[in-house]
Every structure is written in C-alpha cells, then in structure tokens.
Amino acid sequence: MRIAIPKETHPGENRVPITPDHAKKLCKMGADLVIETGLGLGSGYTDAEYTDAGASVSHDRNELFSSADLLLRLRKPELDEIALMKRGAIHISYLDPFNERELVAALKEAGITSISMEMIPRTTRSQKMDALSSQANLAGYVMVIEAATHLPRIFPMMMTPAGTLKPANVFVIGAGVAGLQAIATAKRLGAKVTAFDTRPVVAEQVQSLGAKFLEIDLGETGETSGGYAKELTPEQVDMQRQAQKDHIAKSDVVITTAQVFGRKPPVLVTKDMVEGMAPGSVIVDMAAETGGNVEGSVPNEIVEWSGVTIIGKGNLAGEVPRDASQMYSSNLFNLVEDNWHEEQHIFAVDFDDDILPGCIITHGGEVVNETIKNILEGGA
Ligand code: NAD
Questions:
Q1: 32-82, pLDDT tens digit by residue?
Q2: Res 114 pLDDT > 70
Q3: To test the ligand 1 pocket, which listed residue (129, 218, 220, 228) has its Cβ within 8 A of the most ligand atoms?
Q4: Residue 259 confidence (pLDDT) above 90
Q5: How far is the CA of 140 from the centre of ligand 1 (A)?
Q6: Mean pLDDT across the chain
Q7: Less Cβ around it within 10 Å: N or C end of the chain?
C-alpha cells in the first residue's frame, strides 16, 4: 500500500503528521511510504531523516496525491486536492465535519474513505489515537505561557528584601483536557488558580491539582455518555455569567476553554466583565477560532479592550510544533497500526471494529457517519 504524506500548506502550520520515528515503523510494517520534500522542516526534521527511515521523497505534489492509497495528514484537504485523489483512496486528517459541508460532499462524490481525527471515539482503548486530547494538552500549556508573557506581573509569590509580590490570580473556565493542563501549568508557575466547569465530576480533578473549584449552582448540567458537557440553556449561561463576574474582576488572568462538542462555544465573558478587570490583565480565549467564549476576542489576534489584553490565537499546539508533531504522529501511527493487515500490508477498513466506524465520515460514495449525515441532510 502506498502511503503518502504531503507537506502542510496552511499558513504558519509547522507541525508534521508523521515524524521520522513513526515513518520507520510504517516502512517496517511493509508500507511503501513517500513524503513530500521539506515535509518536516517546520518541526526540525530533514528529508534525510525520512529517507534513513525507509521513505522516498517526492518533489511532485500532484503525483503524491494521485498515486496514494492512503494519505496521512494533519489539516483537512483542499477541494482541488480531493480532485486529484484515486477513487477508493483513504484520507486521514482533522476534517471539522460538523462545519465542512462542501468538503464532506466532495469527499463523498470522489469516493474517498475519509477518516476524521476529531471523531475518534473517546474510549479507554482509543486514548493512544486521541489527537484532540494530545493537542489540547499542549494548548493548555501554551495558553499559560502566552498569558505569562503578556501579563505585566509574575505568577509566583516572591518575598524579597524589596518587598513581597503576591501570586497572580488565574481563573480557568472549562476544565477539560486543555483546562486541566492550563491549571497544572499555572500552578507550577506559582499562581493562585481557580476553575469552573459545568461537569460536576471535574471539581475533584481541579482540586487534586491544588486549585480551587468555583461552586456555581446551575441546576441540572451533567455530561453526555461520551464524557462531553451538555449544552446549557440560555438561562443557565446567564446564571453562570453572573456568578463568575466577581471572580473575573479579581483575576489577573482568565483562560477560557469551554466547548460543547459539535456546537458553537458559549459566550461566558462579556464586554462589561472585561471592563471590570484591572488594566494589564490578560484573557486567553481558546475558543476564539470557533466563535469565542469571550466577547471581543478576535481569531488569531491579540487585541486590547479597556486595558485588558485578549489573546485569540488559534493553533496553540502549533506553537510547540516539535512536541505537537511527536504526539499527533503517535496518535496517527497508532490508528494506522491498529487497522493494519499484516499479511496484505494494507489499512483495512473494517466496519466491525470498535473504534474505526465512529470516525469514518465518507466511504464508497456515501456519508457513512450517521451524526454527520443527519446534519448534512437535515440542514441543521
Ligand atoms: P471539550 O473541549 O469539549 O470542552 C472543554 C471543557 O469545557 C469541558 O470540560 C466541558 O465540560 C467544559 N464546558 C462546556 N461548557 C462549559 C461552560 N458553560 N462553562 C464551563 N465549562 C464548560 O472537552 P475535552 O477537554 O476535549 O474533553 C472533555 C472530557 O472528555 C474530558 O475531561 C474527559 O473527561 C473526557 N475524555 C475522555 C477520554 C477517554 O476516555 N479516552 C479522552 C479525552 C477526554
């Protein structure tokens, strides 16, 4: 089976889907692996490292697409790339299938088997393939480093002959994978950390990291069977905003990571709350690219509102591309290895598998993922 890895073309994207270490493992499994020249440079991997691993290097991007049986990637494909691909080829990448109607339709029409990394079911066995978690972990770390860089204060308490500096107050809204890592990182830097999440089970995890959990009674909240938050009613969102207001005003740093899977994130920090913060304070809105938890945050920009810095940077894991690549590559490799047919040396698409069917979006000219199919057909 010919596995191709084209270079990522999205501006500022330095992560790579497969590192030379995993390239070597794929070649050992019997894959005919070809990479596009310069694939790994953004993460510090040279073509030579890939050829040493057993891969060949191509300078012809179009041929890479048209000859591949399996494409391993990070970002979703462009429409003109889909047009180059063979009918029946398999394409694995992030796909954002909830929002990418045209893309899903093109993959369906082209007869591509598209696999979405976002849709890997979050079971114990699939943890090693869970790219959402691996990249969110790094994003949690990066958000705190960004905040610390922009804050005109330090995070830890410092007692010196020149006086005592109080620790910074950090408030993390949303304590899933990214939020918990943000809490841990801010604690390591010596900040006083408080957090809130609508899933009650999270309180104990927050406290085990040495942070305080802000108690807010929103009535019935809970989580889905997949471990995700349920969407709040507009009244609950309002209750949450009011209850957080005072705490936000006292915070030097607010980090928001609140997401509801497959839906627009809730706006939890309004402009009047930003105005209530002391000038110089910093807000990092991890959801800025998908709609924003913070009013006034701008995707991929750092803006100021009444003296408060609001960071809306996207691709936070991409700020640490070496580690992000290593983790994503490991997730992707584990997915391929888990579905590899040892004798035939192919990626076997098995609809009886416990993990794979959940993340296949299109196959054989059909949209096979029921959730995505309902969204596309229902026009929701
Ligand atoms: P996510 O990115 O969908 O959401 C981030 C956080 O925002 C979640 O903790 C969610 O509860 C929270 N949130 C939503 N609305 C909110 C609101 N109004 N206010 C405050 N917080 C709000 O979630 P995620 O981080 O990708 O994962 C969520 C959970 O899924 C994890 O914490 C974990 O328990 C579970 N999970 C399980 C596995 C596994 O078993 N393999 C893997 C990854 C995650």
A1: 999 999 999 999 999 999 999 999 999 999 999 999 999 999 999 999 999
A2: yes
A3: 228
A4: no
A5: 13
A6: 95
A7: C
Q: The tokens of 249 are what?
A: 């005003």
Among 260-274, 313-327, 349-363, the minimum mean pLDDT is found in 260-274
12 lines ligand 1 (CB under 6 A): no
User: Does residue 242 have an active-site annotation?
Assistant: no
Phi and psi angles of residue 264, each rounded to the nearest 5 degrees, phi first: -70, 140
pTM of the predicted protein model: 0.94
Q: Is 240 in the pocket of ligand 1 (CB under 6 A)?
A: yes
- Ligand 1 and 199: CB distance under 6 A: yes
What tokens appear for 172 in the block? 């993390």
Q: Is 52 a catalytic residue?
A: no
Residue appearing with tokens 């709609």: 291
Domains of the chain: 2-123+322-369 (3.40.50.720), 136-319 (3.40.50.720)
Q: Give the pLDDT band of residue 225 (cuts 50, 70, 90).
A: confident
176 C-beta closer than 6 A to ligand 1 = yes
- Structure token digits, residue 200: 């009650």
207 CA from centroid of ligand 1 (Å): 16
1 burial class (0-12, 13-18, 19+ CB within 10 angstroms)? Answer: buried
What phi and psi, each to the nearest 5 degrees, are found at residue 150? -90, -15
Q: What is the pLDDT of residues 271-306, one digit of tens each?
A: 999 999 999 999 999 999 889 999 999 999 999 999
133 is catalytic: yes
Distance CA(272)–CA(269), nearest Å, equals 8
